[in-house]
Design goal:
alpha+beta, Beta-Lactamase, PduO/GlcC-like_sf, PduO/GlcC-like, GlcG_carb_metab_protein
Length: about 140
């Protein structure tokens, strides 16, 4: 009998995005916020007023990356530098891999059920907004 996969749904994504938007507003930095499901597929995306257009794609790819490897993108970054074990990983998956802060896996217990990707500020700002969104799950 097939087992069902637990995943982020649209209601979850909306709640996560709302919490992330609130944090972005608090720090005064408009952001692009993407939420992906357990398969790494986009569930929802928001581009806050004034957020960079170029960061739409980056936020979606950060969400994909954090789900594809079940790791925060800020934690993947040091391992992908020249001479490190994952050097060149950013060129894999048809260029969909983002190796800087702002992507976080979304977990229920120990199981990854989706991810959030945030882009539009500094790496620290993107990660903080992603953390605020993840906490709403």
């Amino acid at each position: 009998m097939p087992t069902s996969v637990e995943t982020v749904n649209l209601a979850d994504a909306r709640r996560i995005i709302a919490a992330a938007e609130k944090k972005a507003a608090e720090i005064g930095q408009p952001m692009n916020i993407a939420v992906a499901d357990a398969g790494g597929n986009l569930v929802a995306h928001v581009r806050m007023d004034g957020a960079w257009i170029g960061s739409v794609d980056i936020s979606i790819k950060k969400a994909f990356t954090s789900r594809a490897f079940d790791i925060a993108t800020k934690d993947l970054a040091p391992h992908s530098q020249s001479g490190s074990q994952f050097f060149g990983i950013h060129a894999s998956n048809d260029g969909k891999i983002m190796i800087f802060a702002g992507g976080i896996p979304l977990k229920k217990g120990d199981k990854v059920i989706g991810s959030i990707g945030v882009s539009g500020g500094s790496g620290d700002q993107d990660h903080a907004v992603a953390e605020a969104g993840a906490a709403a799950l």
